[in-house]
C-alpha cells in the first residue's frame, strides 16, 4: 500500500506529543488509501521530547524518530523530508505542528484531496471557514500583512495562507523541488517552500482550518524570524521576477538622470533650482518610461496604446510620490523615526506601489509568448 508520512518537527513538546501522537494514529483507520506513518524530527529538546516519543514506539510501530541539533524549523523539515523519502519512499508527505494547534481530524480529508488531482493541500486560516480565534490583533495583523506581501510581491494572488504549517504534499512534487537554497527558519521556510512547490507546478487547494492558541509549552518563532521573513520575501521576488529587477535597475538609472540633469542645469546653465528640479524630474520620468517600455516590460503585449501607457506611467509616478511622502511624514512626525531611515522606508514603499501600478495597469496584458506575467498568473 502507498505510504503517507507526517513530518513533525518538535522542540520542547513533550507534554503535547503525549496527547497528539495517539490522536494522529486514531485517524489511520479513516485513511483507506494510505498507510499512515509519522516521522518526529526532534532537535535534542531539553525537556526530553525524544524520550517520550521513543517510549511510544512499541505501541505505534509506524512512529519514527530522528534527532539532531537545533538549527531552525526549516532545517528540521529539510532533514525530515530527506529522511522520509530515503527510508519510507512515501507517496504523500505532510507537514504539521506538534503543539495541537493543527487538528489531526483533518488528515483524512487532506490526503483524500490528493486522490482528486491536487498535488498540494494547504490547511488555511484565511479562507472562508478558516479562523484564528485566539490571535491577538497584533499577530493577526502581522500574519495578514505578511500574506498580503507574499501574494502581491511574490505573485500568487490566489493563495490566502502562504505561511501555514499544516500541509499535505504529493511526494513526486516535493522530490522535483530543490530545497537546498531555501531559508532555514520559521515563517520564511514555509513561504519559500510554498514558492518552490508552485514553481514546480503544484496544483493547489486550500481547506479551512481553525488555528487556536497553544495550551502547553510556548511558541518558538521569534522576532528574528519575522525579520528574516522580510529579507526572504525580497529573495523570492528576485528569483521569480526578472521584471521587478529590471524595474529597479531602470529606477536607479532615473535617479542618475535626475541628479545629472539637475547638476548640469543649475551649475553649467545657471537655471534656478525652482525650474531645474521639475525639468529634471520630468526628464527622468520620460527616460524611465522609455526604458521600461523597451526593456522592463518588453515581453508584455500591453492592451494600452503607447499614449495611454505614457499617461498612466505619470499617474503611477504621482501616486508613488504621494505614498512615499505620506509614509515619510507619518514615520517622522507620528512615530518619531530618524528621517533618513524614514525616507528609505518611504522610497521602498513608493517603489513597490509604482511597480504594482505599472505592472497591473500601465503594461497590463499577457506576455508575448501567451503566458501570464508572474503577478497575474491564474493558479489553475
Ligand atoms: N525540530 C524543531 N526545530 N522543531 C521546531 C523548531 C526547531 O528549531 N522550531 C519550532 N519547532 C516546532 C515546534 O515544536 C512546533 O511543533 C512547530 O515546530 C511549530 O512551532 P511553533 O513555535 O508552535 O510555531 P507557531 O505556532 O508560532 O507558528 C506556526 O504558525 C506559523 C504561521 O502563523 C507554525 O505552523 C509556523 O510554521 C507557521 O509559519
Ligand atoms: Mn504553535
Automatic annotation (TrEMBL):
Record bears the keyword Glycosyltransferase: yes
Stated name of the protein: GtrA family protein
Pfam families per UniProt: Glycos_transf_2, GtrA_DPMS_TM
Primary location group: membrane
TM region positions: 244-265, 271-291, 311-332, 338-357
Residue span(s) of domain GtrA/DPMS transmembrane: 246-363
Domain of life: Bacteria
Family to which the UniProt record says this protein belongs: Belongs to the glycosyltransferase 2 family.
Keywords tagged on the record: Glycosyltransferase, Membrane, Transferase, Transmembrane, Transmembrane helix
Amino acid at each position: 500500500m502507498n505510504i503517507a508520512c507526517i513530518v513533525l518537527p518538535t522542540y520542547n513538546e513533550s507534554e503535547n506529543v503525549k496527547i497528539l501522537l495517539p490522536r494522529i494514529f486514531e485517524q489511520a483507520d479513516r485513511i483507506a488509501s494510505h498507510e499512515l506513518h509519522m516521522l518526529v524530527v526532534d532537535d535534542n529538546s531539553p525537556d526530553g521530547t525524544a524520550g517520550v516519543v521513543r517510549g511510544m514506539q512499541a505501541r505505534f510501530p509506524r512512529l519514527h524518530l530522528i534527532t539532531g541539533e537545533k538549527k531552525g524549523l526549516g532545517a528540521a523539515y529539510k532533514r525530515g523530508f530527506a529522511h522520509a523519502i530515503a527510508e519510507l519512499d512515501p507517496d504523500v508527505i505532510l507537514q504539521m505542528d506538534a503543539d495541537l494547534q493543527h487538528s489531526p481530524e483533518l488528515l483524512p480529508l487532506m490526503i483524500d484531496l490528493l486522490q482528486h488531482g491536487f498535488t498540494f493541500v494547504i490547511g488555511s486560516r484565511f479562507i472562508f471557514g478558516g479562523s484564528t480565534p485566539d490571535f491577538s490583533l497584533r499577530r493577526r495583523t502581522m500574519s495578514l500583512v505578511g500574506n498580503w506581501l507574499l501574494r502581491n510581491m511574490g505573485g500568487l494572488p490566489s493563495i490566502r495562507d502562504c505561511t501555514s504549517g499544516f500541509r499535505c504534499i504529493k511526494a513526486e512534487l516535493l522530490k522535483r523541488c530543490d530545497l537546498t537554497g531555501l531559508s532555514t527558519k520559521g515563517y520564511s521556510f514555509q513561504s519559500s517552500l510554498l514558492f518552490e512547490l508552485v514553481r514546480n507546478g503544484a496544483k493547489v487547494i486550500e481547506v479551512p482550518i481553525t488555528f487556536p492558541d497553544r495550551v502547553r509549552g510556548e511558541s518558538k518563532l521569534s522576532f528574528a524570524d519575522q525579520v528574516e521573513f522580510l529579507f526572504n520575501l525580497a529573495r523570492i521576488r528576485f528569483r521569480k521576477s526578472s521584471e521587478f529587477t529590471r524595474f529597479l535597475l531602470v529606477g536607479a538609472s532615473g535617479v542618475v538622470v535626475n541628479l545629472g540633469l539637475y547638476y548640469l542645469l543649475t551649475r553649467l546653465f545657471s537655471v534656478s533650482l525652482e525650474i531645474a528640479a521639475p525639468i529634471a524630474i520630468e526628464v527622468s520620468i520620460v527616460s524611465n518610461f522609455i526604458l521600461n517600455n523597451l526593456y522592463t516590460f518588453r515581453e508584455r503585449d500591453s492592451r494600452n496604446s503607447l499614449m495611454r501607457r505614457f499617461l498612466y506611467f505619470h499617474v503611477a509616478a504621482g501616486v508613488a510620490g504621494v505614498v512615499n511622502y505620506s509614509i515619510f511624514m507619518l514615520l517622522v512626525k507620528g512615530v518619531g523615526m530618524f528621517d533618513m531611515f524614514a525616507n528609505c522606508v518611504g522610497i521602498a514603499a513608493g517603489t513597490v506601489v509604482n511597480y504594482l501600478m505599472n505592472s497591473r495597469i500601465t503594461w497590463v496584458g499577457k506576455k508575448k509568448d501567451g503566458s501570464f506575467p508572474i503577478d497575474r498568473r491564474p493558479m489553475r
